[in-house]
Amino acid sequence: MDVGRSIADTVDRGLYLVAGLSVATASDSCLDGGSTSGLDMDHLVATVEQVDGVIELHHLHVWELDEHHRAMEAHVAIKDGLADDLETTKSDIKRCLADKFQIQHSTLEFEYPDSQHNNCTDSFLIYQH
Questions:
Q1: pTM of the entire structure?
Q2: Pairing of strands 54-66, 69-78
Q3: Which CATH superfamily hosts domain 41-111?
């Protein structure tokens, strides 16, 4: 028996095993409702709340679409009078989410905390969708 062939077969089988475990782990995450393992949600909230004009982030849903893509939806309470700069604030939040948390897709609902039209009663965080 050729020793080189035996070593190559062993390495080949090891690579298949590693690839199979990676697929199984990703599949488990998708079946688990897209849990966001390794994502510090408290840090995410605190970081977004540091963006200029943001008062609070709540009603937060984050999930993994697959092993490389995350999505998020949230309510963002902003300072009164920020309407003229809303697009800038939204861009700053989305850039922060992509750069620091690998969240490439986000749906953000903006609200003014003291507005008579603000009917949001969801002040909680939903860490997984």
A1: 0.65
A2: antiparallel
A3: Cation efflux protein, cytoplasmic domain (3.30.70.1350)
92-110 residue pLDDT tens? 999 999 999 999 999 999 9
Q: Where are the domains of the chain?
A: 1-31, 41-111
CB-based contact 128:62 (threshold 8 Å): yes
Query: Taking a C-beta distance cutoff of 8 angstroms, is the pair 90, 57 a contact?
Result: no
Residues shown for the chain: 129
CB 60 within 8 A of CB 77: no
Report the candidate in 43, 24, 21, 40 with the shortest Cα–Cα distance to residue 32: 24
**What is the distance between the alpha carbons of residues 9 and 7, in angstroms, rounded to a whole number?**
5
Give the containing element (helix H, strand E) for 24: helix 3-31
Distance between alpha carbon 23 and the CA centroid of its chain, in Å? 20
